[in-house]
Design a protein that fits this description.
- It is rod-shaped and about 140 Å long.
- It has two domains: about 70 residues; about 70 residues.
- It has about 200 residues and is an all-alpha fold.
- The chain contains seven helices and no strands.
C-alpha cells in the first residue's frame, strides 16, 4: 500500500503513525457537527472537560514539536548538502585552468614531430685554461699536505706558473680574483715559515 510523504517522514524519524481509517462509502452520512460549549458543559463534569482540554493541548504541543524537529533536521541536511555541492563546484572551477593547460600541452605534443635526441653540449674551449687557476688553492693544499722535502718548492712553482693569469684577472677586476691570489700567496708563506 502506498504511503504519503508525511507518513514516510514520520516513519524515517520514528514518529508513530496512525493507520488510515477505511474509506467510507460515498453514500455514508456526513459526520455529526461537534458539540457546542453549552452541550459539553451540561453533559460532562468540569474536571473531565479540563482534563480533556489539557490532553488536547499536550497533543497540539507534541505535534508542534514534531513539526519543528522535522523542519530543523531537514534544514540541517539541506544546508550540509548545499555546502558540499558548493565545495565540489569550487573545486571543479579551480581545476578548470589546470585541465585546460594540460589539454593544450597534450595537443602541442601531438602536433610536434618527434625531435632527435639533443647532443651533449660541448665544453667551452676556455674552460681548460680557467679550471686549473680556479682550482689552484686545492692543488697547492694537496702538494703541501704531501710534506715531502720538495713540497714547498713544487707549490711555489705551481703558483708561479699561474701567476700571470691571476695578475691579469686582478688587473681586470674579475670578481674573486684578488681573494684567490691572496689565498694562494698566504698558503705559500705559511708553508715557508713552517719549513
Amino acid at each position: 500500500m502506498a504511503t504519503s510523504k508525511a507518513d514516510s517522514l514520520k516513519e524515517f524519524y520514528g514518529i508513530p503513525t496512525t493507520p488510515k481509517a477505511a474509506e467510507a462509502p460515498a453514500e455514508a452520512a456526513a459526520p455529526a457537527p461537534p458539540p457546542s460549549l453549552n452541550e459539553l458543559a451540561t453533559s460532562r463534569p468540569l474536571g473531565e472537560l479540563l482534563q480533556l482540554s489539557s490532553q488536547r493541548l499536550d497533543a497540539v504541543r507534541d505535534l508542534y514539536a514534531d513539526r519543528q524537529s522535522l523542519v530543523y533536521n531537514h534544514h540541517q541536511e539541506l544546508v550540509g548538502a548545499s555546502e558540499t555541492v558548493g565545495d565540489m563546484r569550487r573545486g571543479i572551477e579551480a581545476l578548470a585552468p589546470s585541465r585546460a593547460s594540460l589539454e593544450q600541452q597534450l595537443e602541442q605534443m601531438r602536433q610536434q614531430p618527434a625531435a632527435p635526441p639533443a647532443a651533449a653540449p660541448e665544453a667551452a674551449p676556455w674552460l681548460d685554461e680557467v679550471a686549473p687557476v680556479i682550482e689552484l688553492p686545492w692543488t697547492l693544499r694537496r702538494i703541501l699536505d704531501a710534506r715531502t722535502p720538495t713540497s714547498v718548492a713544487e707549490a711555489e712553482a705551481a703558483l708561479q706558473a699561474h701567476a700571470p693569469i691571476l695578475a691579469a684577472w686582478v688587473e681586470a677586476r674579475v670578481a674573486g680574483a684578488d681573494e684567490l691570489q691572496r689565498t694562494c700567496q698566504d698558503m705559500i708563506a705559511e708553508a715557508q715559515r713552517h719549513s
